[in-house]
Design goal:
This protein is of the alpha+beta class. The chain has helices at 13-29, 34-49, 83-91, 143-156; strands at 53-60, 63-70, 77-79, 95-97, 115-123, 126-135. The protein has a single domain (13-159), classed as Beta-Lactamase (2-Layer Sandwich). Helix 1 runs antiparallel to helix 2 (34-49).
């Protein structure tokens, strides 16, 4: 696949996901380097949706460690059960946060972040990575984002 995404910015959110997910699959399908794949996934999502921050954390021992991302600098390590990412890891479930200031124990890596969605990447019944997406807009994420980001991590999980 070419390294350019084909995205119509006038499409609905769902249509954008339906357009970008197959392109992301093509980007990662024949690449076996995890860092390269995570990098392209983060870039594709950021470019398509213009999110504030898109990136991955990888489970290493008892911490999540920052992986490839697009956006402002981020927290490097997060303990299990701490903040949105650590809670998603602990519960092995997606967390959608309309207002990060209202999330108990939120870790403010960037003061510009207003809403967030975190999706665990599960392999062999274990969380191995966390996909974290932040927006500078309150309530920017909804059931559409959750549905499609969960589909995305299921499709690309074996490549990262």
């Amino acid at each position: 696949m070419a390294e350019d995404l084909i995205i119509d910015k006038t499409q609905s959110k769902a249509e954008k996901y339906e357009t970008v997910i197959p392109q992301i699959e093509s980007l990662v399908r024949y690449e076996n380097d995890v860092v390269a794949n995570m990098s392209n996934i983060a870039a594709a999502l950021k470019e398509t949706f213009d999110f504030l921050w898109v990136g991955f954390y990888t489970v290493k021992g008892e911490e999540l460690v920052l992986g490839p991302f697009q956006g402002p600098v981020a927290c490097t390590r997060i303990k299990k059960g701490k903040g949105v990412c650590g809670t998603s890891w602990q519960n092995a479930s997606t967390i959608l946060v309309e207002d990060v200031e209202a999330f108990p124990g939120h870790i403010a890596c960037s003061s510009a972040s207003k809403s967030e969605i975190v999706v665990p990447v599960i392999h062999n019944k274990q969380v191995v990575h966390i996909l974290d997406v932040d927006s500078a807009t309150l309530s920017d994420f909804d059931a559409t984002d959750q549905e499609y980001l969960e589909i995305l991590v299921q499709k690309i999980g074996k490549f990262i």
